[in-house]
Amino acid sequence: MSKKVRRIGVMTSGGDSPGMNAAIRAVVRTCAYYHTDCVGFYRGFQGMINGEYISMNARSVRNIVNQGGTILQSARSKEFLTKEGRAKAAKNLKDAEVDAMILIGGDGTFRGGQVFSQEHGIPVIGVPGTIDNDIYGTHYTIGYDTALNTVVEAIDKIRDTASSHNRLFFVEVMGRDAGFIALNSGIGAGAEEILIPEEDLGLERLLDSLERSRRAGKTSSIVVVSEGDKIGKNVFELAEYVKQNLPYYDARVTVLGHIQRGGRPSCFDRVLASRLSVKAVELLLDGQKDLMVGMMNNEMESCSLDQALKGKHNINKDLLRISEILST
Ligand code: F6P
C-alpha cells in the first residue's frame, strides 16, 4: 500500500507560461481544502537540489491568479540531469518531510520527474504548462491560449504597417519543434502562409504561393514561421531568399520572441490551470503516482508519465488546408 500523503511539494520548471500562477494557487488551495501541508520549491528542480522552499497556505497565493510568470520562478537545471543532483533533491525532500511532488512544466520536466520517482520512490504528478502545446495526453497546455492571443494581437499590428507600406512580413513565433502556435495564430491572424516543422512545404512552393498572391492583387502579405520550421533556412535567410527571387517584394522580419511567454493569462488558461491542478492534488491524495493530468475533450483525464513522454501530440493537418483555402 502506498504511504499516506501528508505534505505535497509544488514547483514550476522549464520555460514559464501564463497560467502557472493559477496552477500554483490551485495546488496550494486544494491542499488547504483537504488539510494537507503544501510547500513550494523555487526554480524547479534546482530549488529541490538546493533545498530552497517555503511553506504555503491559502493566503500565500492571494492575488496571483491573474499574474503571468511564476511566483516560484523557473529554471532548466543541468544538475538534476545527474544522479548526484537527484539524490540531493531526494534528501532535501525527505528532510522537509515532503511525501510527493506536483511538477508544473513541459516534457523536460516530466522526463526529470519520471527518473526521479523511479530512483527515489517519491510519487510525482505532472501538470502540463508550456506555451508550445506539444504534450501528448492533453489537448491544451497551460499558457498556450494566452500565447496565441499575444501572437494574434502582435500580427494584427504588423498587418497595419504591412498594408500601409505594401510589405511582406515574415513573423517568427515560438514552439521549439511544434507548429501549434504558428498554425493556429496564422489562421487567427489571417496569414497568407504558415511554415511549421510538421510539414515542409519547400522553398519553391513558398515562392509560387507568394507569386500567386501578388498576381491575385494582394499588396501585402504575412508569413508566419515557426521557430522550428525545417525549410532549411532561418527566418532572416528566408526573407533574403524571397527578396532575391521575388525582387518586387519589400520584405521585413519580426521575431516575436519571449513576449509570447509573458502577460496576464487568458480566462481559458486560468480555468485550465485550476482544473488540472485540483485533479493533480486529488490523484496524489488518492494514492496515485507518476501520472500526468490533461484535458481531453473538455474532461479532466490522466495518463502515465511514460505515455505522455512517448506519445506525440499531433497538429491537426486539416488546419493547413483551411489556411490555404482562406489565403486565396
Ligand atoms: O518551451 C517553451 C519555449 O518558449 C519554446 O517555445 C522556446 O523554443 C524555448 O522555450 C525558449 O527557451 P529559452 O527561454 O530557454 O530561450
Describe the structure.
- This protein has 328 residues and is an alpha/beta fold.
- The protein contains eleven helices and eleven strands.
- It has helices at residues 20-33, 45-50, 83-95, 107-120, 144-165, 180-188, 203-215, 235-245, 267-285, 305-310, 318-326; strands spanning 7-12, 37-41, 53-56, 100-105, 124-128, 167-173, 193-195, 221-226, 250-255, 291-296, 299-304.
- Strand 4, helix 4 and strand 5 (124-128) form a beta-alpha-beta unit.
- Helix 1 packs parallel to helix 9, helix 5 packs across helix 6 and helix 6 packs parallel to helix 11 (318-326).
- It binds 6-O-phosphono-beta-D-fructofuranose.
- 6-O-phosphono-beta-D-fructofuranose is lined by residues 15, 106, 130-132, 174-176, 227, 261.
- Substrate binds at residues 130-132, 167, 174-176, 227, 252, 258-261.
- Its main location: cytoplasm.
Q: What fraction of residues sit in β-strands?
A: 15-25%
The overall strand count is 11
Task: Report on the biggest sheet.
Answer: 7 strands, mixed
Number of helices: 11
GO molecular function: 6-phosphofructokinase activity; AMP binding; ATP binding; fructose-6-phosphate binding; identical protein binding; metal ion binding; monosaccharide binding
Subunit structure: Homotetramer.
Keywords: Allosteric enzyme, ATP-binding, Cytoplasm, Glycolysis, Kinase, Magnesium, Metal-binding, Nucleotide-binding, Transferase
Binding site for Mg(2+): 107
